[in-house]
Design a protein that fits this description.
single chain; Creatine Amidinohydrolase; 2 domains; 3-stranded antiparallel β-sheet; protease
Length: about 450
């Protein structure tokens, strides 16, 4: 049973005394500050004359008095540059009414040792969860005006209500800031490279864990946690729940339970990404033969998926539609399933919009934008996203797959229980795309050579 902290005056005075003077040195201005300022300027220009509110969000309860690890709202982080160190409940206000817009962050600054919050408040007290930065420290770091969160409600009362637009209640504002992230600036691209590099290390650790995973009743969890360790060591954590799907589990697109065995002759599909401290995340998938070698049928299916991915890579360049990337991959999937006699019609017939039989074994899309969210820019308009035109600076995935469920009677028995996905993160350049995840092998023979180093 938990006991209450004493609240008598004598104890409060005793707790507040004899602490060393705290050094509140100011940090250097973050490299992201100028980019975040430019993003705020773009928002202010679009919503001239308005007051725009972006909430970082509160900590989310996991159970009773325990919370999930905190993560700020992506729009807040994008417009402030504040990442994993964001103080919960912080609020960004952009006042675009004047000739020059003004921005400020309201945050719960650190409390003094003379406050009972220091030791008595388990949710936010320094004694419990660590010291928060001061207003001056956050201002210096992000190059933005700061105010105490305690003054926020009073500040709102001084503003004309009809001018206030809160992201959480404004679809147009949410759409604009989502579309603002479609093309990444140089800071974002550098952060995505960091996220990919950390994820590559995670995949290497996962590959090393396969020996230990084989034969364990929860072998998938061994692989999952090997990646997770690297995510916490080299980043803020996972960008999304890891999929470590061995054998027939690979046919379940979002298999995150990861409680199954890893058998020697299985393929294991690992879909995982590290989120770095700036909150940008990678999203990578590799399908690996646990034994180190593909069987004939595994290689046949894997190579077909690789061909689809390569076709998508070939068409991806500035000026083409985002949806053309998916179409290129589907042409290959339709061709292969037709050649294998699975659909009973030609690939051309299956590709017709009102037919699409090949999609039985790949129901998901080939690509999605990537950045602060694993499925980034989700509130963007269709004409800007799916039907949008590729531009340099865009980052998205290319991830075709084939999934033959154990109980799928429409395919030969040898196909059943095999799921394959190959997912890379690509950056649109002036002439095509750069494969950011090229450090991880893609060709089946290269995968085998790479695995030989670890198992």
């Amino acid at each position: 049973m938990r006991t209450r902290t004493p609240q008598n005056r004598k104890f409060l005075e005793y707790m507040g005394a004899n602490w060393a003077k705290q050094k509140d040195s100011l940090p250097k201005k973050s490299a992201v500050a100028k980019y975040a300022s430019a993003r705020r300027d773009a928002v202010a220009k679009k919503f001239k004359g308005q007051i725009l509110v972006f909430e970082a969000g509160a900590a989310k309860v996991r159970s009773n008095d325990t919370n999930y690890m905190y993560r700020a709202h992506s729009a807040f982080s994008h417009l402030t540059g504040w990442g994993s160190a964001t103080v919960p409940d912080s609020v960004l206000v952009i006042d675009a009414r004047g000739k020059t817009s003004k921005s400020m962050i309201f945050l719960r600054e650190t409390a003094g040792h003379d406050s009972d919050e220091f030791f008595a408040n388990a949710a936010i007290g320094e004694f419990w969860v660590g010291k928060r930065p001061s207003l001056k420290q956050v201002s210096a770091l992000l190059d933005i005006q700061t105010r105490s969160l305690t003054s926020y409600k009073a500040f709102l009362k001084t503003l004309p209500k009809e001018k206030i637009r809160n992201l959480n209640k404004d679809a147009e504002l949410a759409q604009f800031v989502s579309e603002l992230r479609l093309v990444k600036d140089s800071y974002e691209i550098a952060e995505m490279r960091k996220a990919v590099a950390a994820s590559v290390m995670g995949f290497e650790s996962a590959a090393k864990s396969l020996k230990q995973a084989v034969g364990h009743q929860r072998g998938e969890r061994i692989v999952e946690t090997a990646f997770y360790a690297e995510a916490r060591i080299n980043g803020n954590g996972l960008g999304y729940d890891t999929i470590a799907a061995s054998g027939p589990h690979a046919c379940t697109l979002h298999w995150i339970t990861n409680d199954g065995p890893v058998n020697k002759n299985d393929l294991i599909l690992l879909d995982a990404g590290v989120e770095v401290d700036s909150l940008y995340t990678a999203d990578v998938t590799r399908t690996l033969p646990v034994s180190g070698k593909f069987t004939h049928i595994q290689r046949k299916i894997y190579d077909a998926v690789l061909e689809a991915a390569d076709a998508a890579f070939k068409v991806a360049k500035p000026g083409v539609k985002f949806s053309d990337v998916h179409q290129a991959a589907m042409n290959v999937i339709a061709k292969k399933t037709a050649e294998w006699g699975l659909i009973g019609i030609s690939a051309e017939e299956s590709m017709k919009q009102d037919v699409q039989l090949h999609r039985r074994w790949m129901v998901h899309g080939t690509s999605h934008h990537l950045g602060l969210d694993v499925h980034d820019c989700a509130q963007a308009r269709r004409e800007m996203y799916v039907d949008g035109i590729l531009q340099p600076g865009m980052i998205f995935t290319i991830e075709p797959g084939l999934y033959f469920h154990q109980d799928d009677l429409s395919v030969p028995k040898e196909y059943r229980g095999i799921g394959v996905r190959i997912e890379d993160d690509v950056l649109v350049t002036k002439s095509g795309v750069e494969n950011l995840t090229a450090a991880l092998p893609r060709k089946s023979t290269d995968v085998e050579k790479w695995l030989a180093k670890f198992i």
